[in-house]
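We modelled the chain as a single entity of 146 amino acids. Its sequence is:
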Amino acid sequence: MAEYLLRDMISKNKELEMKNWDILSAGISAVKGAEANEKVKNVMGELNIDLGEHSSHNIEDLELKKEDLIITMTRKHSRALVLKHPGLADKIFTLKELSKTDSDSKDVQDPFGLSEEVYRETRDEIKKNLRVLLEELKKTELDEEE
């Protein structure tokens, strides 16, 4: 959800250009090439975001050292990546670490296997944190242009 939410937010922001961004979602245990499940399609469809062309990626299939920033949803995933790729520790953060939003939880929990309502709540939690993060990233993009 995060990839598509961020793409949508950037495309609707007049100060940003999508060509300056390379956004890809990948899971630690994702099955490569899987479609998004119906619950995700439904809750994203409520925001007019189509996941019909989505195909999952496994993090092991990516060259992480080429990435500027690696954002995870949980501290557990961040720790696993840092242990496997210690040289990338300065690029790996949770979404909530970067957004610095005040929250009871420092993680965005995976709604897999739960109700559509939980998917909706997770979507909204991700979107809220991405909105804050995007404001910070916008400053970076604008600084690089100068």
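As a brief sanity check on the tokenised model: The chain is about 45% helix and 5% strand. The first helix runs from residue 2 to 11.
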